[in-house]
Each structure stands twice: as C-alpha cells, then as structure tokens.
Amino acid sequence: MRSITKTIDLIWCIDGVLISAFSHVRLFLSFLFLCISLSAFAQPSVDALRCELLSNPLGIDKTSPRLSWQIQSTERNVMQTAYHILVASSPEKLAQNSGDLWDSGKRISDNSIAVFYDGKALESDTEVYWKVKIYTNKGESDWSAPASWRVGLLYYKDWNRRWIGFDGYFDSDDKEAGYLSARYFRKEMSFSKEIKQATAYIMGLGLYELYIDGRKVGDQVLAPGLTDYTKNVKYNVFDVTKLLNGSQHAFGVILGNGRYYAVRQEKPYKVKHFGFPKMQMQIRITYTDGSTQTIHTDDTWKGTTDGPIISNNEYDGEVYDARKELNGWARIGYDDATWMNATYVQEPGGNYDAQINSNMKVMQDLQPVSVTASGNGKYIIDYGQNFTGWVKMRVQGKSGTEVILRFAESLNADGSLFRDNLRAARATDTYILKGGTTEEWEPRFTYHGFRYVEVEGYPGDAVADNFVGRLVYDDMETIGSFNSSNVLLNQIHRNAWWGIASNYKSIPVDCPQRNERQAWLGDRPVSAYGETFLFDNTNFYIKWLEDIRLSQKEDGAIPDVAPAFWRYYSDNMTWPGTYLMVADMLYQQTGDVRILQDHYPAMKRWMHYMRARYMDDEGIITKDSYGDWCAPPATIEEGRGKSADKKYPNPLLSTAYYYHLLNMMARFSEHTGNEQDRAGFEKAAAKMKKDFNKRFYHTDGYYGNNTMTENILAMYFGLVEEEHKTKLGDRIVTIIEKENGGHLSTGVVGTQWVMRTLTDMGRADLAYKLATNTSYPSWGYMIENGATTIWELWNGDTAHPRMNSQNHVMMLGDLLVWYYENLAGIKSKENAFQTIVMKLEQIKDLNAVNASYRSLYGAISSSWKRKNERFEWNITIPANTRAQVYIPAKELRTITESGKSVTANGDIQIIQEQNGLVLLEIGSGNYQFLSKF
C-alpha cells in the first residue's frame, strides 16, 4: 500500500454549520454522528483525500458514540478498504499514537459512517481525543489531525444538587389571565486560581438564557428543546472557559415559560401543565494546578420576577416594559438587596439527557418589501414571505409609549390583518419605551408565524429599516438543492423549504401561527422522508422518535401528538404508524441500525396492542380515527366557508396500514437480531392480505368506496393480487383523468403515496401533471393564490378559518421524495447511499433538472438536460460509494462519457441494455454522459 503525505484541515461544525475554532463560546451538544476532518495531497492516485467533521462532538452522554468520516477525492472509484482509529485520554498520548482508551487496530471494512466506539468505559465530564487512518484501493492516508469530544454527564447523580425557582404567583404576574413574568436569577463568585477549563451544564425550564458578566452565552434561542418534562429533560452544555478570565464573575439566568408553564389551564384533561419555571445548573471548573471546583445553583442565588418581561408565552407573544429594565443585573456589583433568595423546588421528574438535536437560532434576517400606512396611526408591514420568528424593532420616543405588533399570515380585502385563523392565539408583542435615545428590541421567549405585521403606536414614521424580520428554526444546514426547467416545480420546492424550516421548533410542529403548534404524527409519515433531502435533520428526527417512545403508555398505546402536550390517545393506525415509518426512513438514510434496535420493543408492543384491541373476527383492524384527513372538497365553492375539521373513519385505511407495518416489522426483526419474530410478522401479513381483499376488493377492479386514496394504498402497499393490478391501475388513472379532471383528490393519508404509486405504475407523466397543475386542487393552485409556503388545506383560500393554516407541511406528501428520487435520480439502494440508484423518469415536458444532496458519504449531484434527441447528464458520486445509472439511449454505442465511448472506459461497468435504457455501474468521481435517445 502506498503511503500518502497529507495536510490537515480540521473543521468544527454543529450539525453541519461551520463554527470558528477560536470562538469564545461554543455550545456543546450530544450527537450520534461524529466525524473527523482529514485532507491528503500527494500522488496522482489520490490527489485529494479528505474527511469532513460533520457535527460538533462535545457534550456527549452516549457511552458508545458513532464515529464517521467523509472521504473526498477527484480520482474515480475510490473505495475504503480498512480503517484504524485511536482514542486517547489526552492529546499527548494521541500524538504518541497511544490509544489508551481504544485502539481499533487495522480493521478491514468499507464502513466510514457508522463505526461505534468500542473502548474503555468513558467517565462523565471528560475530554476524549481521537484520530483515524484510512486505507483505500488507491492508497493509504497518514493519521488525521486530532479531534475530540467531551463526555457529558452520564448519570443522574452527576448533577448532585437540587432545582431552584419560585413555585407561586407574584404581583408581577397576571394570575387570572394565566400570564407569568420572566424569572431572573443571579449569583456572584470569586476565583483565586487561573482557570484551565470551564464547562457549563444547564437545564432551564421552560426556556432560558444564560449570562456571564452581562454577556449572553451562546447564540441559541428558545432553548432547550421541547419534551414531556415528566419523562425527559434536555440539558445544554457550553464551553465558557474564555468568559472566565478574571478573579470575579457574575452569573445570570432568565427563565421564560415555554411549554412548561401552560398558558391556558382551563382544560387540564387535554393540556399538560408542568408547573412554574425552574432551573438547575452547574459549571465544572478545572484549574491550571489540576484542582477542580463545581459551581451549583442553590438557595444562595438571588431572584426576582419584577423585570421588564411582563409576560411571555408561545401563543400570545411577549410584553416588554423597558422602563423596568434591570441594568447590569448580570454583572459584578449589581445591587440585588431587594431580590429574594431562590427557593428549592420539586424536580420535573424526567430523565436528564444531553440534547442531541441543535437548538433553535436566528437563521436569516428579512427586510420588509413594503410598509404601508393604514390609518389611525397604524402601519402594515409586508415581508413578502410567510415565515416563523419575530421582528427586531428600532424605535425612539417618549417614555411609556406603547408600540404594539400584531402578526398575521395574510390580509383581508380592505388591507387589514386577517387573524381569524389564529384561533385563541393573540400573536401580539408589546414594547413599552423607556424613552430618550434610540431603543432596539426583540422578544426572547415567543415566536410567530406570519408574513404581515400591523404596527400600532409607533412614534414617528415607520420605515422598513427599523423592522427586521428574523427567521427562526432549528440550527441545521440545508443539504439539498433542486432546480428544473419548470418554474412552477421550482417555486413549489422553494415554498416547501420555507414551510419545513418554519415548522422546525425542536419538534416537528404542524403549524407555527395558531394556538396549536403540536407535533402531530399524522402530518409526517412520508413528508419527513422528503425533508431529509433538504435539511440535515437526522438528530432532529432521532430526538422526535425518542419523544414518541417516551409518550407510549404501559399497555402499548401511542398518542396522535408527541410529546403528548395534548392528551390525545385515539388509537388509530395512520397517525401512530408514523413512529415506524420515521424509524425506517432514518435507518435508510443513515444506515444506523441502533435506531431500529432502540425502538423495536416499543414498536412491537404497539403492534400487538392494536391487534389485540381492534382486530375483528375477519382479520380487519376496525379502528381508524381520522380517515383521509382533509381530502379536498369536490369544487372550490363546495368547501367555501366550511370547516375541514371533520373525521371520516375508514377501516380500509387502518387495515392497509397495519399490513404495511407488519412487513416493515418483519424487516426490522431481521436488522435488529430478532429473527425469531420475522416468521410471525410475515404470516400475519399474508393472512391479512387475504382478509383485506375478501372484505374490500370489488370485482369491478377497485377497493372500498373507490376513492383515490383507497386504491392507491392497495397498490403501493402490495395488497392487490397480481392478476388484478392492471385493472386497479386503470381505475386509479380513470379517477384522476376523468372523474377528477386531471387532479388529485387525496387528503393527508393518500397524498403520502400518490406520486410514487403513479410512477411505479409507469405513469410518471400523470404524476407530473398533478405536480404542475395550477387549478384546484393542487400545489400550483396554492401558489397562484399567493402562497409562499404550503397550505394546510387544498382549498385554503375559501375554507372556514377555524382550521386553515397557511403554513403547513402535511400536504407535501411524497412530493419531495419524488423530486429527488425520480426527477433527479438520487435514491439510496442500500446503506445510506453507499449504493445509489440513478434512474430518471423521462417526462415529455420536463427538459432539465439540476439537483444535489449531501449524503453521509458526501455530495451527490445530478444535472441533466435534453434537447431534440440529445441527452446530457453530469453526475458526481462521493468516494466510498457506487451508483447504478440508467442512461436513456437508443443503443449502447451512442453513449459517451467525457467524450469517449463507454465501451472503452475501464471506470464504467456495462450491466445491461433494455427498453431504451442502458444500465451502467460507476464508482466515485465526476462523470459527463452524452447519449442519443
């Protein structure tokens, strides 16, 4: 094996977002994916071998974290053949090539995305250092630059102190309205030694901001992530070493309400209430002389409720009185004589875990496209885009002047805000000026879903520069792109991006504007799959799976909403079934079998629960709660003014889903080492298929009531007998083309499967028609009527406002999956894109697609165009992967790659030629294919 000299390029990231290695404060999060960064420049055989650090590896409370690296090379057909990992307790030992914690030795393996730490037991609050050497079929790398991760607090006793807060109402609170003011806590400390390392661990519920010497620690907002706090509490970790560079320091924490203090408690049977805000924090310090100290929150901390944040909650907004600002409250020397001592309070009850998903962050600023005076001293601000976040305002005026900002997604015909679809959410921020110089303000503990803002009471003229819109969502990188020759397809993709980003709020909420904002399982069985092509959301959905598992009842029941902030356990298949589907999606996209292993027992228990409770004597699962939720009215006028909040339960849907999930569980049992279960699941599925056809199949060639959704489920799930497929396919086409006039008629259930079902039937042209329609009902109709995200309802412009969000994702269904897998040809065949299937659907009116997706192995790109009979396809395949590429061509001899015939290209394997397609297999690298078709 040839030796390769190298240079090193270490990149620190949080979920793919680059962070300066010299930043004063770094947020430490728990991640399942660690990666090390390695570059190599040497012999021509491998002129650029590089591994990129995928996520910030500090603060991990997993005892066996997953180590991954990403190889980049301009040479073709690069495959890893082996690796060697060293993990050490100090950088000095690692530099001496001593893996005192773990020396994997040279292991023959092509695995570069899921190597689990298998060394000595790790200790809480310790730094771990590691590096890797890789071997490829093109050469061998030197040792990489070192990387490290910090082990979090592994055990409950590591916290070793009690929670503090104020359990009760104060004069600053509005008990009748259910509003609490923010709680402020502070503590001053002296240090006589030089600090080598300081790490802050904090749990602040519902939401917190941490300050040291008046400076906010970190750039996260609305932290920590939402959970059912009786089951699970997330802690955040910060490196605060560089903030503690003196002999005296002041520590401060502001607590907001979040979901912990439920703003409306009039329905305790429905809405979970956890109590008053509280916190526990410790800062672990190592001095340069080797001694250690831990600072804890205790009853010597001082606190007050009489600060400028008069009230705050997610739904109604924030009221801030700048006249009550506590100037210098988090700095040394502040007079807190009137403050109270903090009191010890009851702990939340849930397990303490490091937060594996990124916190939310201000990800982008938006400038208004217009500011319009609307009379009575009011202004309407239009940002041109529906999004989630808040407004950062600059203002100057007299003390006591109230500026009120009201938020909405759209306008009435007279130009006023349309707010009827917000239900009980007030969606209003109020700022009271202290007076004097220019003041700048933005809220801390609320967010809004909006495009428009009404400003009332603003002193002087409201100008655009004084109202910056701030887009807020979980700090994750966009890893996919899509552009095509069809402008409408591109706009739908853009709307989808904004809608998905807007609804990432540490859980996948349904909508960001009204008094709901819940993580409904039924919204994302396949939509989540499509989202993975746009965002680096793996840890986000791993966290959500844990929320679902923890919400499961002892008897096996799974709720419709998780975390179960609403106590909705309606026992149906289509909503809780998302638990299995998201787990399957994560396994497919990441190759991490632990995801299935962790959740297999809970999934199996739920499947048994539903079978025992709801299967009748004829083998049918009788319980369905919602039916094909929000199916479109037959015409736009038929649905005018009517509420979509109607349920049409259908045992065909529940039985079809149970069959689909039985087959999924059979696969899971094999992957997770539960092979003894496979035969049982397969036998149950075979019987259910017979029972399903006996009950629901009609000899005229359709299922159930002959709806589009019923027939599509039978087709896609493989319930239809082989001899009936053609007839069923004809029925589906007839419904779309003749009965629906070329449109879909599916609700949230059917839309999850429609695009791929039609494509698998050989009717990608019909799927394309559905995707590019501009008349009702369609995604294009939404855009034609002003949508900049995705509506909750197909008839969102005429439906009753009670349930009519203009920023939802559930109706995306499998559209984005179809974009990337079928139009762009980027599909994983096995092991998280280690084998890629690139097969394009040739659609007459689509002439070009340019798309990319950053898999765990690296970037995959697919850019094709055609003109007349000429087809051009540029492809990039990452190192350590292979692709099966289907080239449209009249015959093999018409295909060239980089100007040479593929028959004479040793980098390309010719597999077969059939039906106008030539199947090739290629390794990593960049390729330029030309053909005639």
Automatic annotation (TrEMBL):
Residue span, Bacterial alpha-L-rhamnosidase N-terminal domain: 193-363
Enzyme Commission numbers on file: 3.2.1.40
Domain Alpha-L-rhamnosidase C-terminal: 825-899
Domain of life: Bacteria
Record-annotated Alpha-L-rhamnosidase concanavalin-like domain positions: 375-472
Transmembrane segments: none
Limits of the Alpha-L-rhamnosidase six-hairpin glycosidase domain: 478-823
Keywords associated with the record: Hydrolase
GO molecular function, one term: hydrolase activity
Reaction catalyzed: Hydrolysis of terminal non-reducing alpha-L-rhamnose residues in alpha-L-rhamnosides
Protein name: alpha-L-rhamnosidase
